[in-house]
Design brief:
473 residues; alpha/beta; Rossmann fold; 18 helices; binds 5-phosphoarabinonic acid
Length: 473
């Protein structure tokens, strides 16, 4: 029998309210400005087209080149799902934010609180900090016998992740001796770094971060796919969604390529002093998607120098907000504060649940008008009302609409953001894929903790001016 597969419609990017026709000439982008930017956008397009798949743009091919890896991931995930109660990711930055965002988007919002029968997957934890209280509290609740740890670090040497690894491995060895390795899966570079050496020595099941895939572009490789598969998320559909979006992002016709138009709008906005990009999903399931976006946008575009070595101090500060929650916290600023922001709403047409607002309070019309509506209608009304208020106040805003939140649309959304970031970085003429500012902090940490080879950095740190007690109150 032929099984017909439901085709999920494409997500949509609506930029009407970025344009001067809707928010006025002073704050809006004119058709002429967009036309003038078209050539720079098409240059970015050609550069990306020429280089995709090579250098640090290997991630662009992930939706196409992982059939064998996906099989291995699914087999491994099956065993973990069968045997374990908790699955813990030890990782940070690009090695944590994607798995967290996809978990939040595609699993039950109270996943860990459900019974095992309801969950149908292990509990899920992502430990992306070295706060000692957090680690201690995790160890308080885990049943080690039924826990698998996925240590994820592309470089294989990030202090945070490796210190977590040391703590966990010590405990596992003390309890299970030679069998400790059964509780660890490593995800790392195939040759560089310490984790791969340890993985070989200890015999960990290992997945690789392919060449050309940096941390913040790694969600669609084993970094994100293994945790997703363990959670029972359809990873083939995630990749299919990414391919679906890629078809649009490959279009050479500027105006029908959503990531290219979005990049051009970002580029113009940045040049016009809109230094803040607010990402505001109207769905709790997408709350951590905004966190993931923030890292992608911040680390990729925040650069001191351009590709010719000129000092540019490029970037746009990403801010996460959640609708409707942050309407009661941040929207006052966005509506009336400085004209330095672009707000991107993420709306969902069909939520996975519908909740009716009950009747009652008939004698209080200012409450009873809510009855008979649904929370779905309320959240949609609040999103459109906020969009309207911002637009009326000449505040640039755009709307990304997901027909629903599922593996396909999440694949589309993440690929869209990665492409928008890559195109914007090309237009800004910066290296989108490095992170020298992060490396500086990492190296300073090594020096402070006495790692061999970092003596010069330690001397540099020790020679910094002493703090003036006068400025400490
Ligand atoms: O995007 C990036 O490259 C960074 O945020 C890294 O993901 C982060 O620093 C962690 O690095 P690693 O995966 O090497 O431990």
């Amino acid at each position: 029998m032929k099984v017909s597969r439901e085709i999920t419609p494409d997500i949509k990017f609506d930029y009407n309210n970025m344009m001067s026709a809707y928010i006025g000439e002073e704050q809006g982008i004119t058709d002429n400005e967009l036309r003038m930017t078209r050539n720079a956008a098409l240059e970015a397009y050609s550069y990306f087209k020429l280089n995709r798949g090579s250098g640090m743009m290997g991630w662009a091919e992930l939706p196409y080149n992982q059939d064998e890896i996906v099989k291995d991931i699914l087999n491994t995930a099956k065993i973990i799902r069968r045997n374990c109660e908790s699955f813990v990711v030890l990782g940070i930055g690009g090695s944590a934010l994607g798995p967290m965002a996809v978990f939040q988007a595609l699993c039950h919002l109270r996943h860990n609180e459900l019974s095992k029968r309801q969950r149908k997957a292990p509990k899920f934890y992502v430990e992306d900090n070295v706060d000692p209280e957090r680690m201690a509290s995790l160890l308080d609740i885990l049943d080690l016998d039924k826990t698998v740890f996925n240590v994820i670090t592309k470089s294989g040497s990030t202090s945070e992740t490796m210190s977590q690894y040391l703590i966990i491995m010590d405990m596992l060895k003390a309890r299970y001796g030679d069998k400790a390795a059964e509780h660890i899966v490593a995800t790392t570079d195939h040759e560089k770094g310490n984790l791969i050496k340890l993985a070989k020595k200890e015999g960990f099941k290992t997945f690789y971060v392919p060449d050309g895939v940096g941390g913040r572009f790694s969600e669609l490789c084993p970094v994100g796919l293994l945790p997703a598969a363990v959670l029972g998320i359809d990873i083939k559909e995630l990749l299919r969604g990414a391919r679906q979006m890629d078809r649009h992002c490959r279009k050479s016709d500027f105006k029908s390529n959503p990531a290219l138009v979005a990049a051009a709008l970002s580029y113009i906005s940045i040049k016009k002093g809109k230094n803040i990009s607010v990402m505001m999903p109207y769905a709790d399931s997408l709350k951590l998607m905004a966190d993931w976006y923030c890292q992608l946008w911040a680390e990729s575009l925040g650069k001191a120098v351009d590709r010719n070595g000129n000092t540019v101090y490029a970037g746009q500060t990403p801010v996460k907000a959640l609708g409707v929650t942050d309407q009661h916290s941040q929207i006052q600023l966005y509506t009336e504060g400085p004209f330095d922001k672009v707000v991107t709403f993420i709306g969902v047409e069909k939520y996975r649940n519908e909740v009716k607002i009950s009747g009652g309070c008939e004698d209080i019309p200012s409450v009873s008008f809510l009855s008979g509506h649904t929370l779905n209608e309320l959240i949609a009304a609040e999103m459109y009302a906020t969009e309207y208020a911002l637009t009326k106040n000449h505040r640039p805003n755009a709307m990304i609409t997901l027909p629903k939140v599922n593996a396909n649309t999440i694949g589309q959304l993440m690929f869209f953001f990665m492409m928008q970031t890559a195109y914007t970085g090309c237009m800004l003429n910066i290296d989108t894929f490095n992170q020298p500012g992060v490396e500086e902090g990492k190296n300073a940490t090594y020096a402070l903790l006495g790692r061999a080879g970092y003596e010069e950095k330690a001397a540099e740190l020790n020679s910094r001016p002493a703090k003036n007690p006068e400025y400490i109150v």
